[in-house]
Each structure stands twice: as C-alpha cells, then as structure tokens.
Design a protein that fits this description.
Length: 543
C-alpha cells in the first residue's frame, strides 16, 4: 500500500524543490523502501518540449519518449529509478484529458467544473500507474499562492483527506533569509507562506527551511508555534558545497527520520545506509586532480539548459577522481573570432544538443579545432551532426555539406527523416506536422560495431539510449564518409540510422545521436562520460 508525500514550495521559486524531493527519495531508498517521484506542473503547456531552453531549462526525456520537466532528471539521478511518462503532468494535459472526455460525452451532460472534474483528473493521475511502491513523492511545481497551482493544491488536499495521515504527508519548502543588518534569520516569510497553504486547507507536516546558516532551536520553536508544527519537524535545509551532499545534510538535520516517524515506521536501530552518498561526497571533496572541458553551445547563458550534461560530466569526474571544470562558451563567438584563443589549453571539447542554425558554424569550427589538434571531442546529438558535417567538408571533400535544418541544401549530409523503425513498429511523422512531441523521442536500441572504440567503452554489443531530435545523419553518405576516416560505429538495428560516429585517427573523437547524459548517475557514471574524462586527463598530461 503506497504512501504519498506531497512537496510544495513557498516564499520564492528556485529554492530547489526538485532536489529536495530527489534527496528525500534517496534517503527513503537508503532505508530500504521502494520509491517513485512525480512532478505536477501547473503551467498550461502540454509539456516543456516546445518551450525555449531559456524559459524552462533542459527538457528531460524518459525511456518511453515523454518530454518532461528537468526535475525528473534530479529524481532519476538521485534514485536510479527510470522516470516514465506517467511521472509528469501539466495543467495543459489535465485540461486536454478533461476536454476530450467532454467531447466524447463521457460526462453524461454534466457541467464541467474545476472541482470536481479537473481535480478528479489530477487525483487520477496521482493514483495511476502504481507498482507497489512504498512511497510516491509528488512535487507540485510553482509557488503556493500562484493562481495556476490552486486546482493541484485542492486535489492533493482531497487525497490527504481521503487517505488519512497514516498514508499521506505534506512537506513545505520555504526560505528563512538571513538579514545582515539585523544579524538575524527571519521567520516571517515562512509564517506567511504556511498561512497561504493553510488557507487552501493544507496543514504541512514537515517544514523544510532553506537557510544560509544553522536555524537555532528557538527559531524552530517559533516557526513551529506560528505554523502549527512540532519544532522537530522544522528542518533546516542548509546550503551545501555539492548537490550530492544534500541527502547527507538532510539526514543530519533529521528530515528522513521525521518522515518515517510520521508514518509510524521509525526503527531507531535501523537508520539509512548512506555509504554510497558518503563515498560520492568524499570523492567530490577530495579530487586527485582536475581537467578543463569546454562546452561549446548555444544556451550557455542559462546553465539549467544543460543540467543533465553538467551533472554527467561531474559523474565522469567522480569515476576518475578528478574535478571537472566547465568552461561554457557561446559558439557564435567562433563565427567572429578564431577559436584558438578560447580553446587553447582545454583538455576536452564537447558540443551538446541544440536546435537551429544560429551558432552552428561556430560549432563546426570547434570540431575542426578538436580534430586537428587531437583534443578529445564529444559531440552529443547536434554535436554529432556538426562533427559529421565537419568531416564531410574537410575530410570527404563534400564542400557544401550541411543540414536541412538550416534550409534546403544540395548536400544534405544531415536531413529530415519522415519514417523509421522502432523495433517491429514503423514510426512516421510529416514534415509539416506540429513541432510538439514529433521528434524521434525516447529509448532506441543501437548495435555497436565489434572492435570499435565505443564498443570497447561500453563493453557491450547492444545498447539502448534516449533520443530527442528531428534530423538524422544521411545514410546515403555513409560509404563516402567511412572512406574519409569517419567510422559509423553505432547503428540502429535495421542499419538505417547512424547512431554513433568516431574518427579512426584521433585519440578520442565520438559523436552520438542520442543523449547519454540523461542516464548518468553519480553512483553509476555513464561509460562515455567516464571515458571522455579519462581521455581529458591524458590530454592534461600532454599540455
Ligand atoms: N536540432 C537537431 C535535430 O533536431 C539536434 C537536436 C538535439 O541536439 N537534441 O535533429
């Protein structure tokens, strides 16, 4: 029988509700429980797939091909539980569901209202697709007081009421700011935020207070008194040097203890097994060296756009016991200036996923630099496509090589595919179709060529990785490009879609059509990132 933990946020956004939820999930797992994390997003878009990365940050893709909120990435990185389509819902999806039922006549002539129809749809979502988990953690996006969140808060209030306290718990994340001129931590914003939550009928059971410094017991008592909470359930969420210290810090402050106590599961003799998190934290704190990786991308102004990528590189560092310094470079710079000044001295170059023509030539210039100087190069999705275009132009003599993403061209080395196979199934899309949800999305199998560099890195012949792209490397150029020195070392099972390319005459040059960063975890770093960072360490010994 699953228990439900609802996590809301107050005072300001960006307090790290996603991380807080993920870390609590990890702590419950460390106590031996089966967990699942979900995100309810109050915005109207059906999913974040069509939102600009500057608006929303990264779009996290699940195995089953859903484009979801980046918090699902935190959940998966902290718990290792693969996120699914049914783990993220938005107001847009809820309304789409209600309105299509209305059109079908399923409501038998009733007037459709927020309560009960919209709230019921939200409740159904929360309670659906369960698999004997001990705990379902549901994070509500946005901040309490937002108009959009009201139906979600009403729905979780009802669930809490129906399940009772034995099976539900409300956690509220707030801010306890330190006001330097007064020399004090201030509790008033937390009091107001809890009042707001109480006004919609939710009494939080645990308060998680983001604070720059220790929250003394008298302040906790005060918060508890005003917010109707036991002082022990007022937990300080302190700033920590690495996000992977969060589970340890929360445990030290008593968060998971308070949660299991609430459910009557506190067994004093049996605390969580935190050895994995301790090991990760120690490795991050005590690196044996460092490497510098340049990330030549487009959305470098908002690092949330590359959240999983930055984490996967950190994981590669953990696997090699080094600190990975990231140098974010806007690729457009290379269209005006020589790449050399910016890339001289880096130990690895990575071109990540991206969309559109702006900055593309700058990325091609970065590939040229990495290829000619024999610097480890890792191209992900768009970064693979740019590597293929670079090789086609400069090694294969296909001067006009380009991608049809940038408009019609004579040598479409990268082009739009409207049909492909997924296992036994044919997937189709029309070139004029909607933008949302029409890419090649989710997990696809890939066969690795025996004896290739990537086959050695993965130590396997068949892999499965997650995709999110519209264009593909054009198989018709395969032979010419192979002759020029590019090896097509990973192919779709039907041999029609190039999934991985590598350069034969280069220490580490790999382009992948998928997003390996989505599956990397601190306790299970992705082999490509581990190997790339190892190559960067070798490079650092040369310069
Ligand atoms: N824009 C490219 C495509 O749609 C690459 C996408 C990506 O990097 N995720 O194929």
């Amino acid at each position: 029988m699953s228990r439900f933990i609802f996590i809301t946020g107050g005072v300001v956004s960006s307090l790290g509700k996603g991380l807080a939820s993920a870390a609590l999930g990890a702590l419950l797992q460390a106590r031996g429980y089966k967990v699942r994390l979900r995100k309810l997003d109050p915005y109207l878009n059906l999913d974040p797939g069509t939102m600009s990365p500057f608006q929303h940050g990264e779009v996290y893709v699940t195995d089953d091909g859903a484009e979801t909120d980046l918090d699902l990435g935190h959940y998966e990185r902290f718990t290792g539980v693969p996120a699914r389509r049914t783990d993220n819902v938005t107001t847009g999806q809820i309304y789409m569901n209600v309105l299509s039922k209305e059109r079908r006549g399923d409501y038998l002539g009733a007037t459709i209202q927020v309560i009960p129809h919209v709230t019921d749809a939200i409740k159904n979502f929360v309670m659906s697709d369960l698999n004997d988990e001990d705990f379902i953690l549901c994070e509500i996006g946005g901040t309490v007081g937002d108009i959009e969140s009201l139906p979600f808060l009403e729905a979780i209030r009802q669930i809490g009421n129906e399940l009772g306290r034995e099976r539900s718990l409300f956690v509220h994340l707030t801010l306890v700011p330190y006001i330097a001129s007064a020399g004090e931590l201030k509790t008033k914003p937390t009091q107001h935020s809890v009042k707001e939550l109480q006004s919609v009928g939710i009494q939080p059971d645990v308060l998680l207070c983001r604070a720059e410094r220790e929250v003394p017991m008298d302040q906790r008592r005060k918060i508890g008194l005003f917010c109707n909470i036991r002082p022990e359930a007022v937990i300080a969420a302190l700033d920590v040097p690495s996000i992977y210290d969060v589970p340890l810090s929360y445990h030290a402050e008593g968060f998971d203890t308070e949660v299991v106590r609430h459910f009557g599961l506190l067994n004093e003799a049996q605390g969580p097994d935190l050895s994995t998190w301790q090991r990760i934290s120690n490795t991050v704190k005590n690196p044996e060296g460092g490497v510098k990786i340049a990330i030549v991308g487009k959305y470098t102004r908002l690092l949330d756009s590359y959240k999983s990528l930055a984490e996967a590189l950190t994981h590669g560092g953990i696997a090699n016991r080094v600190k990975v310094e990231l140098d974010w470079i806007d690729s457009e710079i290379f269209e005006r200036e020589d790449a050399v000044h910016h890339l001289e001295g880096v130990h690895g170059i990575l071109v990540p996923g991206g969309f559109g023509e702006r900055g593309a030539e700058g990325k091609v210039a970065a590939v040229t630099f990495a290829r000619e100087r024999q610097i480890p190069y890792f191209g992900i999705c768009f970064g693979m496509q740019m590597a293929v275009i670079e090789a086609a132009r400069n090694l294969g003599g296909i001067v006009g090589a380009a991608s049809t993403e940038f408009g019609p061209c004579d040598q479409a080395v990268v082009g739009l595919l409207t049909e492909w196979m997924r296992g036994e199934k044919r997937e189709q899309r029309s070139a004029e179709g909607d933008l949302g949800g029409t890419m090649r999305l989710g997990s696809y199998k890939c066969y690795l060529e025996p004896g290739s560099h990537v086959q050695c890195i993965y130590g396997d012949h068949e892999i499965s990785e997650r995709h999110r792209h519209r264009y593909e490397v054009n198989i018709n150029y395969k032979d010419r490009l192979e002759e020029a020195g590019l090896r097509f070392s990973g192919m779709s099972p039907d041999q029609q879609l190039p999934e991985i390319v590598e350069l034969r005459s280069h220490p580490w040059f790999v382009g992948v059509q998928f997003h390996p960063e989505l599956k990397s975890k601190p306790f299970d770093p992705h082999p490509l990132f581990t190997s790339f960072i190892a190559a960067a360490i070798d490079q650092s010994r040369l310069v």
